[in-house]
Specification:
alpha/beta, two-stranded antiparallel sheet, Spore Coat Polysaccharide Biosynthesis Protein SpsA, Chain A, binds 1-O-phosphono-alpha-D-glucopyranose, 275 residues, nine-stranded mixed beta sheet, 9 helices
Length: 275
């Protein structure tokens, strides 16, 4: 059973200044809701009601305020005192997770525009069916963007349409010439609690941060079975990590709005026709 999720929401949003001076980037709207609310709903739709948000003291108050009314899930907060990277943020959740397999959902990324949960449901099913040690979501990215992501080395022969592939390696933010593939980690992971001891062994890597990607590579190196699940076209990842991704994600979410989408589309066509 995967019934608990860790949602890292600790970043300072430095790429989005001055927007994020007081507003956590995870509360930026994509359409009608903050991106983090869509993430919480996605988890609930997967049957996960226990959520651990890893965040700083400063952000905790406003996140609590947003979720205190109307969130049917149990949301607990783990404190990350220092910003030492995604791997370190996950390590801060250890005492909440205990001995359970758990899902990691990055709090600045929404999956899909309407059915947010199809990807994680599939990942959970594959995790159980294959007895994997870890299952990670991947999207294919253009070669010039590989240096922004964790990139997979693919072990098994993978054909388009396969539900998953096995990984033989992982590298965080490689340069274009060192990237082993164009498969980029897409904000969702399932791990077993043994990832915590691997994280404790992990030294600072890309960006001088403790990277989850590096701990997962260690798991592969030690014989762990780590599977990659490619996302489908309707499961695109919409993130608010940078201004360009945030602006385009917002436009897509607004266009998909059942009430206003058509009017937004007409207005956009009008604006673009004038350019
Ligand atoms: C993080 C991960 C990276 C992953 C990306 C998108 O990077 O470290 O492996 O590909 O999220 O899910 P960040 O965007 O925090 O730099």
């Amino acid at each position: 059973m995967v019934s608990i999720a860790v949602v890292p929401v600790a970043g300072h949003g430095t790429r989005l200044m001055p927007l994020t001076r007081a507003v956590p980037k995870e509360l930026l709207p994509l359409g009608r809701k903050p991106v983090l609310q869509s993430v919480v709903e996605e988890l609930q739709q997967c049957g996960i009601d226990d959520i651990v948000m890893v965040t700083s003291d400063r952000k905790q108050c406003v996140l609590r305020e947003h979720f205190q009314t109307g969130a049917p899930s149990s949301i607990q907060f783990a404190n990350q005192c220092e910003q030492l990277g995604l791997g370190h943020a996950v390590l801060c959740s250890e005492e909440f997770v205990g001995q359970n397999a758990f899902l990691i959902a990055l709090g600045d990324a929404m999956i899909g525009l309407s059915d947010h949960a199809s990807l994680c449901r599939r990942m959970i099913r594959i995790f159980h069916e294959t007895d994997a040690d870890s299952v990670i979501a991947f999207q294919s990215v253009p070669i010039e963007r590989v240096s922004r992501y964790g990139i997979a080395s693919v072990a098994s022969a993978y054909k388009a349409g396969d539900e998953f592939f096995e990984l033989s390696g992982l590298v965080e933010k490689p340069s274009t010439d060192k990237a082993p593939s164009r498969f980029a980690i897409a904000a969702r992971y399932i791990c077993k609690p043994d990832i915590f001891s691997l994280l404790r062994e992990t030294k600072a890597g890309a960006g001088n941060e403790i990277q989850l990607t590096d701990a997962l590579r260690l798991l592969i190196d030690r014989g762990g079975k780590v599977l990659g699940v490619p996302i489908t076209d309707t499961e695109q990842r919409y993130d608010v990590g940078s201004f360009d991704s945030y602006f385009t994600a917002f436009i897509e979410a607004a266009l998909a709005d059942p009430e206003c989408g058509d009017r937004v589309a007409a207005k956009l066509r009008e604006i673009l026709a004038k350019q």
